[in-house]
Amino acid sequence: MKNVLVVGSTGQIGSELTMALRERYGNAHIIAGYIPGCEPKGELADSGPAAIVDVTDGTTIAETVSRYHIDTIYNLAALLSVVAEAKPRMAWRVGIDGLWNILEVAHEQGCAVFTPSSIGSFGIETPHDHTPQDTIQRPRTIYGVSKVTTELLSEWFHHKYGVDTRSVRFPGIISYVTPPGGGTTDYAVDIFYSAVRGEKFICPIKAGTRMDMMYMPDALRAAIELMEAAPERLKHHNGFNVAAMSFDPETIYNEIRKHIPEFEMTYDVDPLKESIAESWPDLMDDTCAREEWGWRHEYDLPRMTADMLEKLKARMA
């Protein structure tokens, strides 16, 4: 990678990925793509170049890629799961029509493309424990349908035109930097905010519902390390399972109480979030990612919890 465009650079993953890439490759080589109304701010704005990139407008993508001599695109434009269910047409327009535009530009200008998939690409019929890399994918949400389509469309452009497309299936991602924004797994971020504020946490996911989760530093490494992997090592290209930890609300609550014993939690289950959560894997098998490009997670639940609480306390002081 020499010159990188991050589409959706002000979003949950994009804001942190842009900074991680700038630290790795140099500020001037990482372009923060954004849409009007979501302009970069603070360090994200001050540390490097930015450009308006609307995935629904192929012309702006092509112009930016040409102007900055882009060779790699991280396409993070998408609606999160709960928001997508409320706005299905917009979810498709951004996630799939937008992806088509990016892949066309990548084909024309010779770019590699990373577009994340998700545990949401699986469904009720999928094996939930140690979910295989290659298995049935029959999601019942527009978010999940768009993620399966993302994997297949990216794979088609790879085989049809030779575009270097790659992706991972992210679990729920936990971060102290970007507030939650409408995802099913957001409770695992909200719970830390409540704990640090000294508030009782109202959990929207019922006791016993396990989901795959990952701390943001591991998620950023997964995205970068996959794009850096030698292509001859990859048997798969799109939709790599990556895993780090799996827990239900009671487990993370009890881990937080080791640091904040007075912390309290109760339940008020959100039927939509719970139905989505129950259709997702409990734990993905990431053997292919480990074997093909050396994936290894660094954060388990205890280490992540200690770091989240420390960082959030510092930010909210």
Give keywords.
12 helices, 16% strand, alpha/beta, 317 residues, Rossmann fold, UDP-galactose 4-epimerase, domain 1, 2 domains
Short summary:
The chain has helices spanning 14-25, 42-46, 58-67, 81-86, 88-109, 142-161, 187-197, 216-228, 249-257, 271-278, 287-293, 301-316, and strands at residues 4-7, 30-34, 50-52, 72-75, 112-114, 117-118, 129-131, 165-166, 168-170, 172-174, 201-203, 211-215, 240-241, 245-247, 265-267, 283-284. It is of the alpha/beta class.
Your description of this structure?
This protein has 2 domains: 4-171 and 214-241, NAD(P)-binding Rossmann-like Domain (Rossmann fold), CATH 3.40.50.720; 172-213 and 244-283 and 298-316, UDP-galactose 4-epimerase, domain 1 (Alpha-Beta Complex). The chain has a 6-stranded parallel β-sheet. The protein has a 3-stranded parallel β-sheet with strand order 6-9-13. Strands 10-12-14 form a 3-stranded mixed β-sheet. Strand 1, helix 1 (14-25) and strand 2 form a beta-alpha-beta unit. The radius of gyration is 19 Å and the shape is globular. The chain is an alpha/beta fold and 317 residues long. The chain starts with a strand and ends with a helix. It has 12 helices and 16 strands. Helix 7 crosses helix 12 (301-316). The mean pLDDT is 95. It has helices at residues 14-25, 42-46, 58-67, 81-86, 88-109, 142-161, 187-197, 216-228, 249-257, 271-278, 287-293, 301-316; strands at 4-7, 30-34, 50-52, 72-75, 112-114, 117-118, 129-131, 165-166, 168-170, 172-174, 201-203, 211-215, 240-241, 245-247, 265-267, 283-284. It is 44% helix and 16% strand.
